[in-house]
Amino acid sequence: MMKIFVPAANCQIKEDACAYIDQLTKPPGSLGRLEQFAAELAGMTGNLFPEVTPPGVLVFAADHGVVVEGVSAYPAEVTAQMVYNFARGGAAINVFSRRIGALLEIVDVGVAVPIDNERVIGKKVRRGTDNFAKTEAMTPAEAEQALHVGYEQAVSIIGQGARTLIAGEMGIGNTTAASALLATLTDEPLERIVGKGTGIAAERLVHKQEVIRQALALHRPDPAKPLEWLAKIGGLEIAAMAGAMLAAAERRIPILLDGFICTVAALVARQFAPNVADYMIAGHRSEEPGHGIALGLLGKEPLIDLRMRLGEGSGAAVAFPLLAAAAAMVSEMATFSSAGVSTAEAKGEKER
Amino acid sequence: MMKIFVPAANCQIKEDACAYIDQLTKPPGSLGRLEQFAAELAGMTGNLFPEVTPPGVLVFAADHGVVVEGVSAYPAEVTAQMVYNFARGGAAINVFSRRIGALLEIVDVGVAVPIDNERVIGKKVRRGTDNFAKTEAMTPAEAEQALHVGYEQAVSIIGQGARTLIAGEMGIGNTTAASALLATLTDEPLERIVGKGTGIAAERLVHKQEVIRQALALHRPDPAKPLEWLAKIGGLEIAAMAGAMLAAAERRIPILLDGFICTVAALVARQFAPNVADYMIAGHRSEEPGHGIALGLLGKEPLIDLRMRLGEGSGAAVAFPLLAAAAAMVSEMATFSSAGVSTAEAKGEKER
């Protein structure tokens, strides 16, 4: 296993940031959670005036053998079709990445069919996972390789200048794998983790829960042995996202989380290095019911709640401007003294 | 009273937009409220591919005579000091306006002291309102003049290219006037409208409620006669914001609402032309407790909830990128047929 060292966030700089933010020309606390996020960014980056732009968006694509069990409404071929859509710039994550001036890279870490496109980074570890309802999804060595692909891609995009990491995914069947991973981290029943939030028909939902239940009984995966845990369930893109997050946190680069799959990948990353959670901000709350459980395990409250459930990194990309606004607030606003503005008349009062 | 004609939003184009959005390369409904906002923008603008950029931000500043009653923690001089801070570019609304590429104009519609700055548009109707706890805040003719200032400034900024209107404000004491206006539109008790959300000390909060209670008993203001209603309570900047919204709606320009004061101004505008609410999208939910009541009266659910309570238009400016993302989604995403992506296998299922 590769060596990863993630430092804890810097509490002192976070406190300094809070004190400085109270001097800006606004009633103390009146920018609400933007103030909190700005202070957190300072603690993550070690910089009182954190820079989050440009963000780097990595979309990892891979297939899931479990799709043969009939757990998804979309055929597996959609994974590859969407990868070509990403390459042409027509998907939601392309649109939202352009709006936020993001560096965007599409990485094939395990699509079932060959992908031949110069805009797609070919890092296929294997052609999709095996069906984890019957057998292990991959070997621990393959899981580590996928983790390493994510790690290396994050190092690369940070080297190109990315100051925030957004990890996205495309993989038909990956809510099944993510639900199974999450189920091993919590006592919540599968009925609360695997929802019909995405619009799947009720019969198929029950079937999907049953597939996961049987798979967990078969493998008895143990999150305390994270490589084996990942190998038993998958997926390749989830491992790659976790690896990318580890690389970002190691470099004190803030991580803006997307929805359900991404937040489960964040929990995977935390199994390898607990401090990695210090560098995470939750972008949005997904409609997928397991997402609330995953966010609760991470202790994160998301920036936005627009009932999105697309994945690809789209929720994080849509939320990113709020994080950028928080950072700009600290760098660009005047202080009461620099602007010659009077402060509140009475101590303890904050109203305009 | 000036003649204003606000057409209803176009339901047919809104429906067409919903049908088109379902063809984009994503599971139907998976972009959640972004899809809903995109459809509403289509109905407002009459354009299936609405353009919301650049936004135009108008910040109206004015003083409130009621401040002598001791209803605010900040001295009245802060209104003028903040106007100069706006002119220098150091306030929150400057920072957030730059981030979203907004046209930004600062308008003195009634600051108590002379403002001499080339970056401030001088349209002073009078030097602040009178103290509405003792007498009418202004004459109906002055209220109409303030409304007209807002109307003309919106016409001007739309003429310069603004495709969304954000109306902001600065005026020490204006939560008191806004609370009084709102109290006449609802049966909710003053204790629920005038909160301590902004951090005011408990004793002063009770005093502020009492000042409003007595003023309402004195004036018995009637929202059905909107000019007299506005004249009795104020303020000049609230009237101007309402006028700006009327001009925007008349031109089918979407209005992105800020917090409590702005949403009360939206309710004022609706007293003049009910259809104006068709053109409004709520930007954020403020900490000020009356804001939830005002949003309820308008029937709007906000884009973000970050516990902000600053005003100036800051909440709307921070939320604007979400609206822009909704518009970009429609204009730029590929459809299933254009991208050659398979749709869901079974009718009624929407999951990836």
Question: Explain this structure to me?
Answer:
Chains A, B: The active site is at residue 312. The structure is a homodimer of 352-residue chains. Chain A has helices at residues 11-21, 32-45, 77-88, 92-99, 140-159, 174-183, 190-193, 202-219, 226-233, 236-250, 260-272, 289-298, 314-332, 336-339; strands at residues 55-62, 103-110, 120-122, 164-170, 255-257, 280-282. Chain A is an alpha/beta fold and 352 residues long. Chain A has one domain (55-324): Rossmann fold, CATH 3.40.50.10210. In chain A, the strands form two sheets. In chain A, strands 3-2-1-4 form a four-stranded parallel beta sheet, with helices on both faces. In chain A, strands 5-6 form a two-stranded parallel sheet. The longest helix of chain A has 20 residues, at 140-159. At the A-B interface, helix 2, helix 3, helix 4 and helix 13 of A face helix 3, helix 4 and helix 13 of B.
